[in-house]
């Protein structure tokens, strides 16, 4: 009797019913994570068709491999008298308001709840990740704005210092010229006074003798000597100002022109241009807008800073070359031209290739192709492995050159030149791009070596430029 009472106390203190089927455990298993126990058939039915699910009680995720036999619970269930278990089994078939089909109903409801909660957790994670991404992008945007503001401030400060320096030099130079002018005027006035006194004395002598002796005549003009002295000093000032202007031009080119496209106001005076354009304006010669038949072979070529003459400046992302009034500082290069020529960085040894060059802003130019080993002093079109068409301003003449042989081309000056290189056919053709595309000349090329786009700008005394056009592939 005491044993029966102890058993009843034990069974009352321990939960021996499955929360899914609400019956005594059958083959109980424990979840390794949250340690909740269920009937093995109930939990397998609950997880049917899923590799991972949430615990029906606490929703902690688990997989079927996380199930562990609960032998202690199975031993306790085995202590329940057979009559009690049979009575419990008999009541399973009776209709109950809350458990008509307990295992299936609870498992399906639990499964739906688990899926919803898992979906909610996924959405919450996505919201958190998106919010963090927005936060990081906002920080990057703030840093970019701050950095741009710092760069602008530095540029403004640099130009402010240069303006102050130029204004100070201007004031000092004008003050020096004014002082020298006053000193020269004073000397000239003193000389005029002495000459007037001397003239009066000579007139007196002439009145007395009637004859002016030859030995009293002046063999030099003091005023002329004073003027020469003033001119020499002014020439020193002009030289200093010219040297200052050259240094400022070099400074601007080194600091800014290579990083950013050169911007010039439309009415900027030619003498103050860093590298002025040709007298032929873009308004008179607008850029042709027609599309070439060779656009499908268009190449993106750029000028090479290592293969350019020191009096040619390269700007606009290495697409524009200009004649300059000073020597640029590109640094040493064994292949740098000693004449006003430049080559591109890209070379071609197979296939078909096409590029276009704006020539409207230069009165003297040559556009062509050349072998890499062209000499530093070799002129384009004057060697065996270089071909070009060129325009000479004074002669108003277009011609084709190869091996130092000239062929006159009876065409007007092209505003844009298209170059089509066909290495399979071993030909290079030059076209004038205006309101239509006109063949200027075609060469047969007799080399298997890589060829580079090459250019020549004539007359460094006259400003001019060539620009590689953006030609989109069709």
Can you walk through the features of this model?
This protein is an alpha+beta fold and 474 residues long. It has 6 helices and 19 strands. It starts with a helix and ends in a 6-residue tail after the last strand. It has helices at 2-13, 40-46, 71-78, 82-90, 102-209, 222-257; strands at residues 28-31, 37-39, 52-54, 61-63, 67-69, 303-308, 312-315, 320-323, 341-344, 352-358, 364-371, 386-392, 397-402, 405-409, 416-422, 427-433, 437-444, 451-457, 465-468. A hairpin with a 3-residue loop joins strand 16 and strand 17. Helix 2 (40-46) crosses helix 5 (102-209) and helix 5 (102-209) runs antiparallel to helix 6 (222-257). It has a 7-stranded antiparallel sheet with strand order 6-9-18-11-12-13-14, with no helix packed on it. It has a 7-stranded antiparallel sheet with strand order 7-8-19-10-15-16-17, with no helix packed on it. A 3-stranded antiparallel sheet has the order 2-1-5. The chain has 3 domains: 2-100, 2-Layer Sandwich (Herpes Virus-1); 160-207 and 222-271; 295-468, SPRY domain (Jelly Rolls, Sandwich).
Task: Describe the structure concisely for a colleague.
The chain is an alpha+beta fold and 474 residues long. Helix content is 38%, strand content 21%.
Features:
474 residues, alpha+beta, Herpes Virus-1, Jelly Rolls, 7-stranded antiparallel beta sheet, 19 strands, elongated
